[in-house]
Amino acid sequence: MWGPGGYANIWHQAPWQNHEDLLIWKDDFSKIIGSHEAKFGALYSHNTKNEQGNGAAGGNTPSFITGCGSKTTNCVADLLDRNLTLTNYSETDHTPVAAGRWRDTEFYGNDTWKFRKGMTLTFGLRYSQFPEAYVKDGQMSNFIPQLYDGKNFTSALITPATASANGLPSSLVKPWNAGFQPRLGFAWDVFGDGKTALRMGFGRYIGRSNVIEDVNRMVGNPPWVKSVDSGWSGATDTLATCPTCRTMDAVGPNLKNQVVGVSPTAGFAAVDVNFRPPESYQWNLTISREVMKDTVLEVSYIGNHGLHIWRRNVGWNDVPANQPCKGGVAVGCNPALPNDARYQIAFDNRMGINTTALVAANRRINTLGPIAMSQSTGNSSYHGLQVFLNRRFSKGLAFQGSYTWAHTISDVPLTSFTNSTTDPFNYSLDKGDADLDRRHTFVGNAVYELPNWKGMGSAANQFLGGWQLNAIYSFFGSTPVDVTSGVNTLGTLGNVNPRPNLVQGVPIYINGPDKTLWLNPAAFAIPAVGQAGSLGKGAIRGKPINNLDLSINKNWRVKERYGIQFRAEMFNAFNHTNFIGFDNSINFQGNITQPGFGKPTNASFGALNFAQLGREIQFGFKFSF
Questions:
Q1: Which pLDDT band holds residue 59 (cuts at 50, 70, 90)?
Q2: Among residues 116, 163, 280, 518, which is most buried (max CB within 10 A)?
Q3: What is the C-alpha separation between 96 and 225, in angstroms, rounded?
């Protein structure tokens, strides 16, 4: 049961099965031949993971109630009112177990060539093959829309038994074997005195995006699992107006027909047959200089361009943009409105009218239900300036300082297992500052060993000598957090985490006496019918993090063989409040027939509600021998 009001995730998860074995063989070989140092290596792994199909999040959950609280604004009241339908209800006949298997194969060769004094060239090539995972028992299926004959859903539902006839391996995804990854590096002692160095490098890198989640999803497809889905009901629906729905006490007469593969409201899991591993092109340039004895300063430029990043659960069979409304008055097309399917769906959403039939008639393939597809279509870019100052321990002092200015842009979440597609037909709407973008980062540390007092005698030195002071300071700039409107104004079924409009001229952030109030609700507004919010992806930021840790140590030596250390440590020494979370859903009242239309319904919106730990002080003794 999912919903607001303190009932965010009530479910029965245990018992949960998850077993994994990774069998890995690898070997490396190196040989020095004159001015060349050659390295070669290989890796092969055979891996097993048996996990329940719903994964760690769903566990052993045979049924879901989604949208709890959307009828009366109270979750429990929604369930207890026998006249109101559940907003969305789904159920499966059993929880499948995915017997996942996958193999990795890699080879590499590398040569480091000191081709002249003070100059070194490194070049190499790695080959990686990461075929998609399959299941040992063959009980999974991939829904491939391109194979659908327009009549029978089984024509597009491919299993390992029918894969070869369709040119696919048992993983049900086309193999990708172009995993060649060249690497090139260059190092130069600029003046030949060992004090100034220039380094640069370039390479292509490939890895896995995920191993088991898509397998978990595909084992839940027909014919292995039977499931029903009521679809989404309107705010005032009853079983009379929504016969495919149910209440807690009664089941609509048509719900039993809402079986995946039969009903347009029941969906399939799919993986793009052209899915391929993510890759990145990385390059860097670094200049190092010894600025004083035992102290080196480095300045670097780092670049990264990511391609084929995992785009999770894309609503492939959604309503296309600029499509005339199909199905006529019988499904809800309104001739008095603009002849645009998305606009009319968004209009009915605003009026609180059930849009199930209207959405079904206007999908990309209107004889099928939703298709949640994994794709490898994401892109990202990173550019960073890094400055690093390092003094190695000398004369009782050591310190380091590292500063990074960086900017990361993407059109897909970079945090794993995250859904966020505004429009499955227009990924550019989600291009902006990435969820992991952090513009400024600084970390510094210092160790200072106080002078000894041996000249004043052994007793004085035992008391006054052997003290050490340590400090670590860190600053992490804020990262983007999406503000969500809670209202689907675009008219697509898969409009995940819709963003609101940004009101020009109104301050976004609150700077008042209550430091827990961060975002100004007046800075956001509900978008017009048929429109996505004007608030850009990644435009809103959380709070930065400041932290200082201090410690003082006292060391004693006993007969050279034994050591005793006393430590006093303070973490977050200044007890600075570092907020790391806030309520980001404004939840507009999106039903124009209800009081308070267009007004926020979430009173805690924008409030900082989670922080790192405050000051901690600890003492300790250590005995070494």
A1: low
A2: 518
A3: 7
Q: What are phi and psi of 485, to 5 degrees?
A: -85, -25
**Rounded (5°) CA angle 212-66-485:** 100
Q: How far is CA 253 from CA 88, 91, 109, 257, 434, in A?
A: 16, 16, 66, 9, 46
pLDDT tens-place string over residues 94-106: 888 899 999 999 9
CA atoms within 13 A on the CB side of 309: 22
Listed range (24-28, 240-244, 489-493) with the worst mean pLDDT = 240-244
* Spatial contact of 220 and 269, defined as CB atoms under 8 Å apart: yes
Mean pLDDT score, 605-620: 94
Closest by CA position to 145, among listed 389, 316, 7, 376:
316
β-pairing, 608-611 vs 579-582, is antiparallel
- CB burial class (10 A; 0-12, 13-18, 19+) of residue 459? exposed
Mean local confidence (pLDDT), 503-511: 95
Q: CA geometry: angle at 43 spanning 39 and 46, to 5°?
A: 175
Q: How many residues does the chain have?
A: 625
Q: Which residues pair with 196 in a beta bridge?
A: 289
Q: What is the 3-state secondary structure (H, E, C) of 84-148?
A: CCCCEEEEECCCCEEEEEEEEEEEEEEEEEEEECCEEEEEEEEEEECCCCEECCCCCCEECHHHC
Average pLDDT over residues 15-23: 85
- State the Cα–Cα distance between residues 11 and 95, nearest whole angstrom: 14
- 464: Cβ–Cβ under 8 A, 6 or more apart, which residues? 453, 456
What is the per-residue pLDDT across 174-205, written as a single tens digit (0 to 9) for each?
A: 999 999 999 999 999 999 999 999 999 999 99
Task: Of 383, 375, 354, give the one whose Cα is nearest residue 427.
Answer: 375
- The pairing of strands 268-271 and 371-394 is parallel
Q: Indicate the pLDDT class of residue 514, thresholds 50, 70 and 90.
A: very high
Is residue 91 within 8 Å of 65, Cβ to Cβ? no
Question: Quick one: which of 339, 365, 173 has its CA closest to 268?
Answer: 365
Residue spans per domain, the chain:
440-625
Q: Quick one: which of 270, 278, 267 has its CA closest to 308? A: 278
